[in-house]
Amino acid sequence: MSNELAGKTILVTGASSGLGKAIAIYFSTVGARVVLTGRNEERLHETLKDMSGSNHLYFIADLAKVESTQAMMDTVFANVGALDSVIHCAGIQKTLPLQALKEHHFDDIFNTNVKSAQFIAKFLRKKGRYNSQGTSLVLLSSVAAVCGEPAISSYSASKAALLGLSKSLAIELARQNIRVNCIAPGHVGTEMAIEFSKQLTAEQRENILLKHPLGLGKPEYIAQAAEFLASDKSCWITGTTIFVDGGYSAH
Ligand SMILES: NC(=O)c1ccc[n+]([C@@H]2O[C@H](COP(=O)([O-])OP(=O)(O)OC[C@H]3O[C@@H](n4cnc5c(N)ncnc54)[C@H](OP(=O)(O)O)[C@@H]3O)[C@@H](O)[C@H]2O)c1
């Protein structure tokens, strides 16, 4: 696989932290030109410093807002031309039992996790912005899309929405040779996962561990799945989800 991404131009959202950051760094080591996006410029700059090669760029965007997503996609196209892949990692998770849930929490989660993906696809589909020989859009879903847990119902619903979104986008964008797939990770020790764990009892943490027969995840496992989906090795795969979850969803 090692040079499958050499020479490809790949946009990674959520590149200021966690999985997006790990994917951006890994892709830079296998020869891709990576365009990073996130809201926090300082942290995007940190990611850039950890990357190999020198032709990578970053652009600030709040992907919960359509006009910001559009401006970012316009700027990316103006600076680097057509994209070979987009790995959409930006997302938020909030632990909210129903008693605490407010309308704005639900809206924040759906705007960041779902609306962003919908409009990235819309702005990617414009002529000249994708590689007509094959482009891959990868959305970061979660095992929470198919395995229930208490206090994360809005998050689970948003991650399940991505599974449906990717299937219909895969059909609609096949004529443009744009493939659309999801990666559904289990628990990987990023900032998001650490924040989530802090709100659990020791027993709940132990239960999470037990739900992963192969143990908890590492960011590189997700980066390797993203590499496959971004590469031509997956050229006949669209509208599907790869669960990278140590067996969590096998229960
Ligand atoms: N870690 C896990 O165990 C796990 C498991 C299953 C699924 N996932 C999914 O994987 C993805 C990445 O998770 P992670 O663990 O890497 O989380 P993380 O460390 O909290 O990173 C989240 C990223 O999303 C960006 N982001 C959040 N809101 C944004 C907005 N409105 N506009 C633009 N960017 C925004 C953040 O950037 P800024 O702060 O710079 O805006 C940050 O780079 C998420 O979609 C998550 O649901 C993670």
Automatic annotation (TrEMBL):
One of the protein's GO biological processes: fatty acid biosynthetic process
SMART domains to which the protein is assigned, alphabetical: PKS_KR
Record's keyword annotation contains Cytoplasm: no
The keyword Oxidoreductase belongs to this UniProt entry's keyword annotation: yes
Molecular functions per Gene Ontology: oxidoreductase activity, acting on the CH-OH group of donors, NAD or NADP as acceptor; quinone binding
This protein's UniProt keywords: Oxidoreductase
Segments forming domain Ketoreductase: 8-186
UniProt cross-references to CDD domains, sorted A to Z: SDR_c
Record family assignment: Belongs to the short-chain dehydrogenases/reductases (SDR) family.
Record's protein name: Short-chain dehydrogenase/reductase SDR
Species the sequence originates in: Shewanella woodyi (strain ATCC 51908 / MS32)
